[in-house]
Specification:
- By secondary structure, this protein is α/β, with parallel strands linked by helices.
- The two termini are about 30 Å apart.
- About 40% of the residues are buried.
C-alpha cells in the first residue's frame, strides 16, 4: 500500500464534473493543483469501473486516485470485491460506502461483509453520512444510517458537509472516525454549492470554523471537493478552472500552511 502524508491533501471528486470524460476531469484536477481525485463510481458510467483505463490516465497525467466512492445503490459483496481490487491497483487509500438504500433487498454486505473486509484490509473502509430523507414521509430512504450506526460499521466514516444539519456538532460526534471530508456549501434545499456562495468570501455553513478546528486538531486525512457541476459552470472550461482554483485558495486560507 502506498504511504502518503495526508496532511494538507485535497482531492477533486469526479462527481463534480460528471458531464466530462474522466481523462478531462483528471486534467482539470492537475491544472487546478489538486493532489488527486476521489473517483465516484457509477453503474451508468462504465469508464468509472474500467480500472485499466483509470490506471492509464492516472499514470499519464500524474494524478492519484486516493479515494473511491462506491455507487449509492445496488452494492453487493461482488461489487465490494471489485472495488477493493480496483483500490489495490490504483493505490487508493480510502473507500467510501453509502448506507443501504430502501430499495436494496440484500443488505448483509453492510453490517456483515464491510466489517469483515475492514479487518483484513490495509485500506480505510468508510461509511458516509447521508441526509435524513424519507419516502412517503415515514419510511427512511436509507437503512441503518444514523451517525451512531454508520460509525459502528467499520469505525471509519466520511463526512459530507452537504448531508449534515449541523456540521460542527456532527463532525464532533464522528471526529476520530473521519477519513474523508467532502467539502461544499449549502443553504436550505440547495446542496453542493461553491465554498464562498454567500458573500463571495465566506460560506453559508460555518466551513471556515470547521476547517480551522480540524487544522488545530491536526486532522491528517483527506478532503474532497464535491460540487454540483452547474456550480462550476461545467459548460465553460475557463470558468470551471477558475472556480476550482478559487476553491483551492479558500481551502488553503483556512486549513493549509501555504
Amino acid at each position: 500500500i502506498l504511504t502518503i502524508n495526508f496532511k494538507k491533501v485535497i482531492l477533486l471528486s469526479t462527481e463534480s464534473l460528471e458531464w466530462y470524460w474522466l481523462h478531462r476531469i483528471f486534467l482539470f484536477a492537475k491544472e487546478a493543483w489538486f493532489y488527486g481525485v476521489d473517483l465516484s463510481i457509477s453503474f451508468d458510467n462504465f469508464d468509472t469501473l474500467d480500472v485499466d483505463y483509470i490506471k492509464k490516465i492516472s499514470d499519464e497525467i500524474w494524478i492519484k486516485v486516493l479515494s473511491i466512492s462506491a455507487p449509492s445503490q445496488k452494492v453487493t459483496e461482488t461489487i465490494i470485491d471489485k472495488i477493493l481490487a480496483m483500490a489495490v491497483t490504483l493505490w487508493t487509500q480510502v473507500i467510501t460506502f453509502f448506507p443501504p438504500h430502501f430499495s436494496d433487498k440484500d443488505t448483509t454486505w453492510y453490517k456483515q461483509y464491510l466489517p469483515k473486509v475492514k479487518k483484513t484490509s490495509n485500506l480505510s473502509i468508510a461509511v458516509k453520512n447521508v441526509s435524513p430523507e424519507f419516502l412517503f414521509f415515514i419510511i427512511p430512504a436509507r437503512k441503518n444510517a444514523s451517525l451512531m450506526e454508520i460509525k459502528k460499521i467499520t469505525g471509519d466514516t466520511s463526512f459530507d458537509l452537504a448531508n449534515s444539519v449541523d456540521i460542527m456538532k456532527d463532525s464532533s460526534f464522528l471526529w476520530n472516525s473521519i477519513k474523508n471530508v467532502y467539502l461544499s456549501d449549502s443553504i436550505w434545499d440547495k446542496k453542493w454549492l461553491l465554498l464562498w456562495t454567500s458573500v463571495w468570501t465566506t460560506s453559508n455553513l460555518p466551513i471556515e470554523s470547521l476547517l480551522m478546528k480540524l487544522k488545530a486538531s491536526s486532522y491528517n486525512w483527506l478532503f474532497s471537493l464535491k460540487l454540483n457541476p452547474k456550480e462550476l459552470w461545467a459548460w465553460n472550461e475557463d470558468k470551471v478552472l477558475n472556480n476550482l482554483k478559487s476553491c483551492i485558495e479558500y481551502y488553503e486560507k483556512y486549513f493549509s500552511d501555504k
